[in-house]
Amino acid sequence: MEAFRVEITLGFVAVYMVFCVAVGMWAMRRTHDASDFFVAGRHLGPLVVALAVFSSTLSGFGFVGGPGLVYSSGLSSMWMVIVAGFGYAIGFFLVSKRIRMIAGVRDALSLPDVIAARYNSEWARGLMAVTILLGVMGYLATQILAMALVLQSLLGATEMFAGISLITCVAWSLAVLVFYSVTGGIVASVYTDVIQGAIMAIAGVLILITASGIYSGGLPEANAVIFADDPEAALPFGTLGVITALGWGFVFGIGLAGQPHLVTKMMMNRKISDNRIIYPVSLIGYALAALLWFSIGIIMRATVLDGSMAPLDAPDSAAPVFLATFAHPLLAGIVFAALFAAIMSTSDAFLNIGTAAVIHDLPNAIRGRSVRRELFWARVVTVLITLVAAAFALYSYYGNDRLVALLGAFGWGTFAAAIVPVVVFGLNWERATAGAAVTAIITSLVLNFSVEIFSIRLPFGISGPFLAMVTSMTLFLIISLASRPPKLDPDIEQILKL
User: Fold this and answer.
1) How far apart are CA 125 and CA 130, in angstroms?
2) In order of start, what are the domains of the chain with their CATH numbers?
3) Beta carbons of 94 and 259 less than 8 angstroms apart
4) How far apart are alpha carbons 76 and 99 in whole angstroms?
5) According to the per-residue pLDDT averaged within each range, which of 265-274, 276-285, 304-313 is highest?
6) pTM, whole model, 2 decimals?
7) pLDDT tens for residues 235-253?
8) Helices (H), 264-360
9) Which of these, 456, 200, 239, lies nearest to 334 by C-alpha position?
10) What is the pLDDT of residue 498?
């Protein structure tokens, strides 16, 4: 079986790609209007929503970027993962109930719709749409780049496709992604999540078992090899330092409740009481799937340091190389298929919210109504956003030398800094004002993009997203307290009092 490792892996991936095409065609028949395309008609069961929520959290960012970040900087990124439980708790206890109720009473199709209803402000709606569109480009680029890198690793190991370029792999990846997303919208995404979420959780456990068997002493021995080379890399804060690691913990912990692709899924369940099932299932699934983040990264760093593996060409190849070298061919095939599944579904979720921003939210904010023939234009704009994000991914990889994880962290931070104060505070505090929301969003975008575009190095290892998030939250509170209490619509006031 080892002799057919590449063929087995490609076979699993091919079967999954065919499955995506089939699901897209099936979902197209269930997608009749914009409500179906954007929020699946708000009739999903708790298990579907739970698996969709946790699998969207990891995707290519966790499967490819996570191990690559551990390989390059030690355990610094641990703080992106261990805070997830806190982030899920904030999302489900402080956001999910009220956002689902507002979506129901106002027939909201998107997060900016909810923001407009909460603050009675078209400025807040428009700026939230802009934020989502900008963040989508960074995060969607992460997914496209991760999928292309993995496909290049797989195909490059065959005689027929040896030396295949990354650009070609991006083009092939886009072809399947566009078909899948354009035909089925969010319906295709959430229903494939049922299968892919289960596969991801199982794969995380199996990868941990496999990684633990590489050294006789398991992962502790591998970590000892890393410690002997660089003690900082094996310690909890890694090589990037305490401030950076804790900053990531803050942004990824509290910021999880500000990720629009996750928050939007909280608007799709049939009943609010379903959250009692959705929360624990999504948290457990995430914890199991995230096991591969550290197990692969630690093993690859250790085996390179002890000389049993050649240094990797790029940190982001840690997961593909591990699977090709250490995993059983069947396990490798399953994990690669799960990886593509996670990337496809998360990409579709980002395309969905980005498209909603362009054809639904921005037109509503500017002229008071969305475009005509929303479903048609949703599919057209989906293609255009995919192409722009692909170009951004290639530029980031070739022109800016960005790791998948860091590119994803920028997208995550953009969302967190702008959305957390507006959503988490705003849905739980009647005193929150539209002026505070507008100021928080603008400030977060200016800080985040200024640090990124101008490559500003902040002191003490402080990251741009951390600075932007702390600043936006502080301004939101100060401006709301200093302003006259807002007059809320009766239905919104009643929901906030619950």
Assistant:
1) 9
2) 2-399 (1.20.1730.10)
3) no
4) 33
5) 304-313
6) 0.86
7) 989 998 899 899 989 998 9
8) 275-289, 291-305, 318-325, 329-356
9) 200
10) 80
